[in-house]
Amino acid sequence: MPFVVVCGPPCSGKTRRTKELQAYLASNHGNREVTTLGDHEAGVDRNTVYADSKQEKELRGTLKSAVIRKLSKDSVLILDSLNYIKGFRYELYCAVKSSQTPHCVIYCETVADVASEWNSCRPEKEQYTQEIFDGLVMRFEPPESRNRWDSPLFTLHPEDELPCQAICDAIFSRKAPPPNLSTVSQPLSATNFLHELDKITQEIVTTLITAQKTGLPGDTIGIPGTQDKINLTRNVNAAELQRIRRQFITYTKLHPVEDTSRLHSMFVQYLNNSIR
């Protein structure tokens, strides 16, 4: 189903825009089912969840799993949540590519003072505490139209009208993003594929561990076998790197590639999306 990601800081008008889009679709595309997912549907207490990084990660996993289950080509799916981490939006984009359906992003850009005032006007049970509100605003990573996972992007201020027709054109008339190596299963033709997969990923992990001994967070690390580089935003211990490596191996076994020389680049990209 065409997929719409609604993102923005707390109390920035995301649910209002979701309802406006739902109403427009009901009036003009009544033959299409519209499904909405979000924190409310997940039944969570947001102040509790967003105060605990583990619970927050679990919530993102729950939302992502629900999105993957409900993606189809027959109805519209709207994700009404903060969606404030660009890495999470990238994961959603990969899911969209895998299901071969178009998507778009709606960004509710509301200044913090206005959003805070709207938050204080909510019923007490629905309000964010000031500490949680300030933390989420500070951590919010705005979408950028130059990023393929944030495009097409519709940026809205509180006084703007929702460009409903343009959004419908983006999700109904535009072609779905083409599949790539990370989202399409290909036949396993190389007899030494698993051996190469194990060897290449271990070599990259070893290179990264060695580089960290003399490097600093913020360094860019070159990897033999690919022009792609690892952006080391923080120190990553061997245990975490091995966990990421196992995840990549498990995924790649299910989505093997014929050209094993591409594994270097694929694993580097996977590491860059995992190390944040």
Largest sheet: 5 strands, parallel
Q: How many beta-strand elements?
A: 7
Q: Secondary-structure element sequence?
A: EHEHHHEHEHHEHHEEHH
The chain-level structural class is alpha/beta
User: What would CATH call the homologous superfamily of the largest domain?
Assistant: P-loop containing nucleotide triphosphate hydrolases
**CATH class category of the largest domain:** Alpha Beta
Number of domains: 2
Distance between the termini: 30 Å
Report helical residue fraction: 40-55%
Shape descriptor reads globular
Keywords: ATP-binding, Nucleotide-binding
Protein name: Protein KTI12 homolog
Pfam families: KTI12
GO molecular function: ATP binding
Any chance you could write out the topology, listing elements then pairs?
Layout: E1 3-7, H1 14-28, E2 34-38, H2 39-42, H3 46-49, H4 53-70, E3 76-80, H5 86-99, E4 103-108, H6 112-120, H7 130-139, E5 153-156, H8 164-173, H9 193-214, E6 220-222, E7 229-231, H10 238-254, H11 263-274
Parallel strand pairs: 1-3, 1-4, 2-3, 4-5
Antiparallel strand pairs: 6-7
Question: What features would you highlight for this structure?
Answer:
single chain; two-stranded antiparallel sheet; Rossmann fold; 276 residues; five-stranded parallel β-sheet; alpha/beta
Characterize the structure shown.
GO terms for molecular function: ATP binding. Keywords: ATP-binding, Nucleotide-binding. InterPro entries: KTI12/PSTK, P-loop_NTPase. This is Protein KTI12 homolog. Belongs to the KTI12 family. By secondary structure, this protein is of the alpha/beta class. The protein has 2 domains: 3-173, P-loop containing nucleotide triphosphate hydrolases (Rossmann fold), CATH 3.40.50.300; 193-274, no CATH class. It contains 11 helices and 7 strands. The chain has helices at residues 14-28, 39-42, 46-49, 53-70, 86-99, 112-120, 130-139, 164-173, 193-214, 238-254, 263-274; strands at residues 3-7, 34-38, 76-80, 103-108, 153-156, 220-222, 229-231. The protein has a 5-stranded parallel beta sheet with strand order 2-3-1-4-5, sandwiched between helices. Strand 6 (220-222) and strand 7 form a beta hairpin. Helix 9 crosses helix 11 (263-274). The radius of gyration is 21 Å and the shape is globular. The chain starts with a strand and ends with a helix. The mean pLDDT is 89.
